[in-house]
Amino acid sequence: MRFLKFIIIIILALFGIYSLSMNFVDESKSFVHHSEIAYPVDKVFPQFNNLQNFTSWNDFFNEKEDASYSFFTPYQGLGSAMKFSDPKNNDHGDLFIRYSNENRSIRYQLFEGDSDNPYLIDVKFIPSGDKTKLIWNIHTPKRDYLQRSLNLVAEDFFVENIDKSMKNLFQLLGNKVDKDQLLASVKYDSVMVENREGGLLLGVNVSTRNTKEILFKNVMMNHSKVLNFVKSDLAKKDDEFGNPVLLINPANLKDKEISYFYGIPLSKRVSVSDNNFNFQTLNASKTYVIYFQGNYNDRVKNIQELLKMAKKDTLRNGQLIEEFLEEPADIQDVKLKLSLPVFR
Questions:
Q1: Residue 201 burial (CB < 10 Å; 0-12/13-18/19+)?
Q2: CA distance 34 to 132
């Protein structure tokens, strides 16, 4: 009994010491951190202004291996929002963009758990030639006595997170630059022969009217649909999937109604609960290839070149593979790799 009383007295004493010491710890904390990345601001800022991009390299989210994400429109800029949830580790929260001044500054609000008090994170972008300097101003939420000790380690936590995140972003942008350099070296409108590896596509089957006004808008719509599903519902990062692909029977290109499959390459099958999406397998094959740049509706001439070559070589062909080397945008100018599988 005396021993139990002794333990209780010790616990109360420690709690009293802790409570007293917390009087000397601020209920919230503000600090500044400087970082730099060797890419120009017009390459860096979009990675902060789009929350889908932001979560792909920010270490705070990368370390949440079992987390799922939901993104809400608008997907970039002022008013962007997302939720993250990791039931396995009892972790969830919300992130908002509250202010966005292109290539200059951005403000986030981060809510963790059910707290009504957010972290305020302001990032200022300072162009420096081919580099960008960043100034991070971070303000932690107000905490009660029992949680104030977190403020003692908050700065170390954020500094470590920022430094790791900037390394991730540097690597991500490096991969994008490599892709840009590859695109710059592409020879357009010349027919080549390649051995294409097999692959797995997740996407949608589509039927639409085959007119210049409708077809490309339909492709754009389904691109957004598939990409958002892969990124949001399946929580796939940019380095976990390939360039979007459109599969179509080239013999039907002049039909009034046209059917195609639009999908994104994945490394392996995953569980998909939405019946609108399905998998298609691409078999390894010899292909005739031509690169095209221009208005999407003008690609037919290049496709005809591939078909003529296959006919000349007395080969049969499979479905045409239209690989978008850049994401299709609101304008109709595209960069495509057109591949026609051929066989005896």
A1: buried
A2: 11
Direct distance between the N- and C-terminal alpha carbons of the chain, in angstroms, rounded to an integer? 91
Q: How confident is the model over 97-148, as pLDDT tens digits?
A: 999 999 999 999 999 888 888 989 999 999 988 899 999 999 988 766 555 5
**pLDDT for res 183:** 66
The pLDDT of residue 82 is above 80: yes
Per 3-state DSSP, what percentage of the chain is helix, strand, and coil (rounded to 5)? 40, 35, 25
Contacts (Cβ under 8 Å, ≥6 apart) of 8: none
Closest CA to 205 of 249, 238, 237: 249
Alpha-carbon distance 302 to 297, whole Å? Answer: 11
Compute the chain's Rg from CA coordinates. 26
Q: Which helix (H) or strand (E) holds 293?
A: strand 285-295
CB count, 10 Å around CB of 153?
9
**What value, to the nearest 5°, has the Cα angle with vertex 229 and ends 243 and 267?**
45
